[in-house]
Amino acid sequence: MEARNDDMLYAVTQQSGNGVHGLLESVFGFLHRRTDFFYQMEPNDKMGFPPGVAESMVYQYFKKYQDQHFKRFPEKQDLKERWDKYNQEQQRLAEEHKKQQEAKKLQQNEQAESAKQNDSEQNQQQEEVKKQVQQIQGGQDSQKAESKPVQQQQQQQQQIKQAEPKKEIDPKMSRISTYNGDVTDKYSWSQGITEVTMQIAIPQGTKPRDLDIKIKAKHLSVALKGQPPIVEGELCEKVKVDDSFWGIEDGKFLNINFEKAYEAIWKSIIVGDKEIDPKTVDNSKRIEEFDLETQGHLQKVLYEQERKKMGLLTTEEEEQRKLMEKVLDSDNSPFKGLPYDPKKYGQNSGNNGPSPPFNM
């Protein structure tokens, strides 16, 4: 764009009160209100642009002036490449985490579906056995006599089942990390900024249909059907019930994933259980977990830190330097034509006042 428009655009930037963000808001707002820039052209239309063309135009002009910038400051090209590589790695980690969560949910759904199918088959078998027993009981006397061995066999099987040793639960056999969490006598747990993972040891071979699990916004109950709860109580903080889920791992561990209702550090999962020291918790989180506006601010901070490590001025310092050069090198300035030396600016030289910001 021609330099003659700079004063007008600078005034727009000043009036917006939000720097470059305000300028971009004004420009794209104008394109939206007064032009057909965002109108997606249909085959018979005479206005707008085909799909993707408007975005391509924006990127084309961005790339044009970015290339000019790198020609003036070639050392920043390397900084941009390093920054792009960092962003790509962050995006890869975020996508990998998302895939893991989706795979985990898919596994839980498959287990739940399998449990429903097994329940259906079991109910069908019970109905068939019930019909057979009714036929035997409703038959002739000779058939009643023949049914006695069947009844005796059922009684023997019931006695054998009662005599079997009960499977013990070992809560110490944890399979999850206790990062930012702990191990209690009933369960192990870990947490991040937005989620909590809980693992409970259950008898080997336990199926989803054998469990009675109730997750509420502020309460949890976990039990084997027909038995007292393994874990029950008030949750330390509220959870999003619809986004929380559970599943069985290796037939001997129950994993429960809670989605926190708000970002907070939990001292424990169940109120009254062993608490951790919140001061020891790592409460950091990945950049992509923040909203877009916060991500932009964080990336800018990291960018400025990277410039300082390379011995370069920050963006704000660079703008101040250019402004000082322009003002002090103006026609009425006694320092006009002298090379600018920012290191001398503001330094005292004996009793003669501040030294000039130029090399004399």
UniProtKB/TrEMBL annotation:
A GO biological-process term: protein folding
Cross-referenced PROSITE patterns: CS
Localization per Swiss-Prot or TrEMBL: Cytoplasm
Pfam families: CS, Nudc_N
One Gene Ontology molecular-function label: unfolded protein binding
Biased composition annotated in UniProt, kind: Basic and acidic residues: 88-107, 163-173
Annotated CS domain residues: 182-270
Region ranges (Disordered): 88-180, 325-360
InterPro entries: CS_dom, HSP20-like_chaperone, NudC_fam, NudC_N_dom
UniProt feature, compositional bias: Low complexity: 121-140
GO cellular component, as recorded: cytoplasm
Domain of life, source organism: Eukaryota
Family classification: Belongs to the nudC family.
Name used for this protein in its record: Nuclear migration protein nudC
Native organism: Stylonychia lemnae
